[in-house]
Amino acid sequence: MKKRSEDAQGRASELLSTLKKVKGQARIQTLKELKQVVVSHSTARKTVVDEGGVALLSSLLGPFTSYAVGSEVVAILVNLALSSESKTNLMQPAKVSSIVDILNEGSLETKVNCVRLIETLMEEKDFRSEIVSSHSLLVALMRLVRDKRHPNGHLPGLGLLKLISMHQQVRSLIVSIGAIPQLVELIPVLNPECLELALFILNALSSVPEGKQGLKDCPNTIPNMVKLLMRISESCTEYALSILWSVCKLSPDECSLIAVDAGLAAKLLLVIQSGCSPELKQRAAELLKLCSLNYSDTIFISKCKLTRTIQ
């Protein structure tokens, strides 16, 4: 075992030396071999870091990086323990742009590697939201999230989109690429883990005026959110309720009627009677009150019947 780990160290060291000298196909081949060693052996990963391999690999990312080189570089970098300095170096616009290009072109595995690398950069304290304020990045992520052929990309894509949506400055840009209708359409088909991320993102987007309007303009927002109340988890109920509140508050007359017709009143009563948190119950009560303003008491009480909800 010791021999094998020494071999891996030696091989990693050798490949790094080769990488400094070669170009073209030889460079791609060297990177492929280095990736294999790095993925398989922790000692090789340590060697690459200790021998300045991260800086060498990072230097290969730039405006003229080919996909063949870039995808291998990213695949190696995501397996290494990156120092703060290395991350700062990778945050240079030209390097981020190169990673985004690779994300746009790549196979599923490469896309996920790019997502993981960008997530790693976002953990850095010097991270600035401008780094991810990229139309191209957001479009690539939405493409990953919507790709029905590769459901394994949904969770990483939504995970990164969630991190990005936590930055107030980027929310309008996320709305502008059409993320809201796309995410709303996905709601019924996402698994619970992905669903929670999608709802988090939509809720974050509802905090900007364009987001509120986008949610209101999307015909499936209200029915999809109403269906989710008390269905998956308390978090999902909380996000769905918050989104419904934003939309109904924006246009009480129009949206409250649609929501009540979709069975919202009965669902809100379920929330109020449930074991959910007091804050959630309070929000449900406020929304119920807002919705009731458009109806006479008798009609509203009939709308609160649980029969439709249970069906």
UniProtKB/TrEMBL annotation:
Q: What is its EC number?
A: 2.3.2.27
Question: Which SUPFAM superfamilies does the record associate with it?
Answer: ARM repeat (SSF48371)
Tell me, which GO biological process terms does this entry list?
A: protein ubiquitination
Catalyses which reaction(s): S-ubiquitinyl-[E2 ubiquitin-conjugating enzyme]-L-cysteine + [acceptor protein]-L-lysine = [E2 ubiquitin-conjugating enzyme]-L-cysteine + N(6)-ubiquitinyl-[acceptor protein]-L-lysine
| Keyword terms, alphabetized | Transferase, Ubl conjugation pathway
Q: Which InterPro entries match?
A: ARM-like (IPR011989), ARM-type_fold (IPR016024), ARM_PUB (IPR058678), PUB22/23/24-like (IPR045185)
Which Gene Ontology terms cover its molecular function?
ubiquitin protein ligase activity
Q: In which pathway does it act?
A: Protein modification; protein ubiquitination
Asked if the keyword Transferase belongs to this entry, the reply reads yes
Superkingdom of origin: Eukaryota
Q: Which residues form the U-box domain?
A: 14-311
Q: What does this protein do?
A: Functions as an E3 ubiquitin ligase.
Q: What is this protein called?
A: U-box domain-containing protein
